[in-house]
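Supplementary Text 2. Reproducibility record for the structural model of the 192-residue chain.

All settings were left at their defaults, and a single model was retained for analysis rather than an ensemble. We include the record here because the model underlies the residue-level annotations in Supplementary Table 4.
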Amino acid sequence: MNQSKLILPPAVADRRRFLTGTAMLSGVAVAMLAGNAALTSGASAQTPDDMAILNVALGLEHEAIAAYELGAKSGLLKDGTLKVAKTFQDHHKEHRDLLEGTIKKMGGTPVKAKTMAEYNFPADKLKKAEDVLKFAAKLEKGAASAYLGAIPVFQAPALKTAAGRLVADESMHWVILQNALGESLPDALAIS
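Retained model, structure tokens:
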């Protein structure tokens, strides 16, 4: 794939401009968690399971931040593609910060990020921009699937709602990456 195919089309660029504004879906979803006093105060017996799931989600956000760091530092992404990758990394940093705050407000201890080596990313297989984008797309699709799986498991209704919004956010990242790769999208979005 030549580098020119990796420049995002106008519709995707417009979405990117929207995402960099104040209406970022991910921020709204996780802020709902972080700001919900009823959810975080007086945590009951239901919260250990919810907190464990939140820590798994936090671990996914740490992994995504590291993956985008690897991609950005690879030197393989250029211009608009690099900018989008950094924007997505910023989204994941916001998810991380808000998830950490929510876990702390619920009386838990947030899971820490691993070292780059501990993630065991396939850095040696990233030879061109397309490889980086495919790697990122796979992680985004996996994150969407994880959040989707968390919805029925969460006990707190506010967490179910926030997870649903995060599914949309991670799915949107995946779709944009698929578009940048020039890959067709499935007729029906099957996240699994």
